[in-house]
Design goal:
This protein is an all-alpha fold. The protein has one domain. It contains 11 helices and no strands. It is globular.
Length: 313
């Protein structure tokens, strides 16, 4: 055991491990935007999303084969199969909602509405997991959400009711995935379930109308490469990190910590495109950071980790 004066440096404590995994997920999600943004300029969004999820499914299947070896085809109980199916529905709701919202309200407002997850996730956690988010977590979520909404409101970018509804449905889909994962994560094998989730999601997407679904996956070689990179970073690495994070911390905390992802995206935007955030966006960034850091630092000085959620019988 580490000396008492060094125990606070133990970065592998459960709570800190969950925080680090969530930050890693946010990092990969921010990096994902670079190839995804380039891919949707070369092909329709439905085809890009389907190709992205297909690539992620192949990656996650390979990862599951490496990790599980002979066990990959065994140990599939009802809970794992149902969880994969429900997670696939959340994946389709989320990605289809985003695909519908982007042309109507643009990427900025789509991203803002999606951040409603920071409020939806604690509400779902309270209802389904009986996990009571603390007052600081609620306040931090509202403050961080304000940081996203304020620049859009001042810029007068509130238009497109269909786009708002689509993005809001997407937010519910993504939030539901995190809460469900938190509920079952102690009883499933993450890599195989995530791989099956993606294969089912691809099948569902290809069955949707062309404007939402895969459209036959008619992409150029360059668009395929970009979609594959996006799938590796987003539905692949980022989602795996998020699914692993809820082993250690609540889904509500992961939703709040993930708010730093778009701030990372500003950094990547500057590195790759030399784009600089406006003054108003900088103010929003400060609010977001405040909303994230306030409950996070308070938790670091309080309880070490959230207790595991109640398990299904």
């Amino acid at each position: 055991m580490a000396p008492e004066h060094l125990q606070h440096l133990d970065l592998l404590s459960p709570a800190r491990r969950g925080v680090l995994l969530t930050l890693a997920a946010s990092f990969f999600a921010a990096l994902f935007l670079i190839p995804y943004g380039a891919a949707v300029k070369l092909a329709d969004r439905g085809s890009v999303v389907a190709a992205m999820l297909l690539s992620a499914a192949i990656f996650n299947t390979a990862l599951a084969l490496v990790r599980e070896r002979q066990r990959i085809l065994s140990g599939w109980d009802r809970l794992s199969l149902v969880s994969a199916a429900l997670l696939a529905v959340g994946t389709v709701l989320g990605n289809s909602g985003v695909a519908l919202a982007l042309p109507d309200i643009g990427p900025g407002m789509t991203s803002t509405v999606l951040k409603a997850q920071v409020i939806i996730t604690p509400a779902l956690s309270l209802w389904f997991l009986k996990e009571r988010p603390g007052g600081r977590l609620w306040a931090g979520g509202v403050l961080a959400l304000l940081g996203f909404a304020l620049p859009q409101a001042v810029a007068g970018e509130w238009a497109g009711s269909v786009g708002y509804l689509s993005a809001f449905i997407a937010a519910w889909g993504f939030a539901g995935m995190q809460v469900l994962t938190r509920r079952v994560v102690q009883r499933i094998r993450i890599a195989p379930v995530n791989a099956l989730r993606l294969w089912v999601a691809v099948a569902l997407l290809l069955a949707l109308p062309t404007e939402l679904g895969g459209g036959g996956l008619t992409l150029s070689r360059e668009a395929w490469a970009l979609a594959a990179a996006a799938g590796f970073l987003g539905p692949g690495l980022s989602r795996l990190c998020l699914m692993s994070a809820v082993r250690y911390i609540s889904a509500s905390r992961t939703a709040l910590l993930a708010m730093v992802g778009p701030l990372m995206a500003f950094g990547f935007g500057y590195l790759f495109h030399r784009t600089v955030p406006t003054g108003l966006q900088a103010v929003g960034a400060v609010l977001i950071l405040g909303g994230v850091l306030w409950p996070t630092l308070a938790a670091a000085t309080g309880r070490a980790a959230a207790p595991p959620p109640p398990q299904p019988g």
